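Researcher: Let's run the pair from yesterday's discussion. Sequence first, then tokens, for each.
Model: Starting with the first of the pair.
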Amino acid sequence: MTALAGRTRGLYAGNTRAVVARGLLATKSNNWLIIVSGFFEPVFYLLSLGIGFGAIVGTVQTSTGAEVPYAAFIAPALLAVSAMNGAVYDSTWNVFFKLHYAKLYQGMLTTTLGPLDVALGEIMLALLRGALYASGFMIIMQVLGLNLSWTAILALPAVLIIAFGFASLGMAITSYLKTFQQMDWVNFVMLPMFLFSATFYPISVYPQAIQWIIQALPLWHGVELIRGFTTGSLDAMVWVHLGYFGLMIGIGILVTTRRLRKLFLN
């Protein structure tokens, strides 16, 4: 029991807030235009496709069979994309720089902080960025009248779960990457996931085999979860989507903690 407690103390000092505070302080000195730039991409997609193209398309059927305006169909998908963009950017590019160039984590782990403190702190910072992007996008949806049900209020905590999942997995993957060229793999995965996760049209347009692949992607689960809340078309799959992200968060935190310990403490 004593040995287990000792190993736990070596992994976690209960001071995640110190990592978050340091990250927020560093953010204040950065160019906020760069920080918020990732917010605008889904907004432009919404205005051009949702409002413009949506006037031609009319209504679209959700996975539960509800008929909704096209703009209201893609808006929640873009909300999930906004959360993903913010979380992934912070947990990949920023973490990669701190890991290999700033050597920040080596310095942190020479203090009383443990690998789990660092992992949770960095994931929380990425979560904050994802939440910032998503909250702004949610306001735009409300102004445009694209939240069709009172359950849309539940989309905000759902967005945090989505951002948490992508941040956890993003940092875990980044801990294995060694060069900036390898970081291109992240974009290589994110772009097709953005385009094909039932973001712009129902998943039913694809052949069944392709649908199975799409349904394995995290963004599809995020899109369906948010779309269910904002349109009010909910079913039992909500629990599957939440369970998927719960598993994603657990795996991401576990892998990140073990990698940081292996890289800097062993």
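Model: Moving on to the second of the pair.
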Amino acid sequence: MYTAEHKAGTKPHVAARRTFADLPGPAGLPVFGNLLQIDSLHYHRQLEQWAERYGTLYRLRLGGKRVIVLSEHTAMATAMRERPDIWRRSSRTAGAIEELATRGLFTAEGEDWRMQRKLVMRGLTPEVIRNFFPTLTMLTERLLTRWQRAVRRGEQVDLLRDLKSFALDVILSLAMGQDLNTLEQPDNPLQQDIEFLFGRVARRITAPLPYWRWFKPAAEREAMVRKERIERAIAGFIAEARARIAANPELRTKPSNMLEALLVARDEPGSGFTDAHVVGNAVTMVFAGEDTTSNTIAWLLYFLAQHPGVAARVAEESDAVLGSRPVLRDFSRLDALHYLEVATNEAMRLKPVAPMIAMEALQPAQIGDVAVDPGTLVMGLIRQTCRNANAFEDAAAFRPERWLNAAHQHTEGDPARTMFPFGGGARFCPGRYLALVEIKMVVSMIARNFTLEFDRAAPPVDERFTFTITPDSLPVRLAER
């Protein structure tokens, strides 16, 4: 799997020759700018379409906010390498998350971010994931049992729904030490509260104006009630985790989940961490780890179902690695799922679930040859940047074999350096390792036990932007092998 953090391939800035006013871009309206031209459910697609017309650097105005839209990989890599000192996360995005959800690593900046990064990485080390692996195996077996039962009854499996519930069960087990089994119990109140709050955060991020600052309709008031319920539940989870650690001191050296690891780190003398840091980052993991992983798996299944040759090769590899078992039980064998890994790479290239990276200038900065004033927002288009790099032949095709060519790996010519599925630089996604383990567990289980059938009579699958790229449907059927 692509692991470079894009430090190679970045270059010193050339002298700035242009300003915001020099950039091309779509004409807007007084006061609103380009706000009313963007459909929130297809936000990323509109920006990509404008990039096709106006190039790798163009300008927008969203209300009174200046926005530069970027889709050139060298400039993108340089900007990400300059975080968090020159660029911060979008204040609009950070504000929406902090007001409704939590304060954690995702929204932290500067020295606070550096401190919290150390805390979070303590909870996501390969050792923590290894200790969590038996739980992940159990959750994968539960998913398999549900699907086998449905297929044998002749029932249609709602893959999107089940993948989302599975991902939530995984992240709640890891981040909170709780098995809510939302896969079998979809009416769980905590799941409903999390889903509702996540939806409101996405709505705020893409809203034309921050209307909630002036008045709070019923949905916004309901969001605050649900937020308080989530916080009370998490306080209970922390109390339970502390009790487990007290009863079993071995957990201090071998924590079984992220919450225990965070609490151990927080309790170390001079750590500087507080319970608020623990709560904020446990909640951040839940919000960051549900839709991203489930949608990546969904898009991969979407491609595999339409490319039976690729699916057959994934199945052959899964059979060899899993042997007679229906689910992988040997953590050390994850790396042997190499072809599945490159198929995942290819799905993320075509359907990056996080399609944009929003960065706001903290000081006078530069993007390419453009001088950027403080407060200007830069929207980096992940998929468009990869397209513009011209690094892939037949780029629109789903062809995992392109990743098997080792000739350019870790060199300037490596096509992987044009991809940013997990961000880049110091703010490289800390949950990357967990996400890839989840993907391998689920997809190898599917390939070992089922075949995929694509419903070609179904309407075309559309991308919806709800903070991540979500398929509006997944016309894929499971059949037992």
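Researcher: Give me one sentence on the second I can quote.
Model: Residues 47 and 408 are 31 Å apart (CA to CA).
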